[in-house]
Amino acid sequence: MTLSAPRHDTARAVAEELASARAPRPAGNDFLVRLGEDRVTADDLRRLVRAETASAAGELSAYAAMAVRYPHPVFPALLDMAYRAVPRIAACARATGLDADRLARPPTRFSAYAYPAYLSWLALNAGRAGIGAAIYADLDGYYADGLLVAEGLRASGAKVPGELVDYYSAPVPDGLCEGSLSLLQEGLDAGDDAADALRLGRMMQKSLDGFWRSALPE
Length: 218
What we know:
By secondary structure, the protein is mainly α. It contains ten helices and no strands. Helix 3 runs antiparallel to helix 4 and helix 7 packs antiparallel against helix 8.
């Protein structure tokens, strides 16, 4: 898909462009495709939990760095979201048979780093509009896919831990999408380029696809 510049330099216009550019589901998400075919295994779920663990660690450091560069109310809220996720992911790990030693080891697949690596790059290099667009794309895409994952896990013929179903059933925390758009608008008002912000948001969508793909067998 060729990216077009938003018609208006507003956060809402960028958000609408991101929504229209997002790949259809389940076809655009390899994990959802495998789940729909009832082929997800216990090893797939363990790989997914390990990817979640690595991503949460990346979020904690990246959001803190973003907050130092660009003080904004969205970052304490994002950090709170990430902190609250840690014990819930640990519960998923226990339920899937991952012990603390295995969970502490770094993922062995490069695709598992697609999301946290990109988030770290944003924290160090992107402007406010780009960060805002990427965070919005992250929240909008990840939680929407999570609900589909929860539905698929419930319908699966395999025995799936309830902790995983509960984890992916959670909606986007209140105010975070609005906060990310506020940061995006703040950057646009300060002169950040809307087309660049859109590109960074699209890259986040692609990094999320890599995140879900990392749970699948090679």
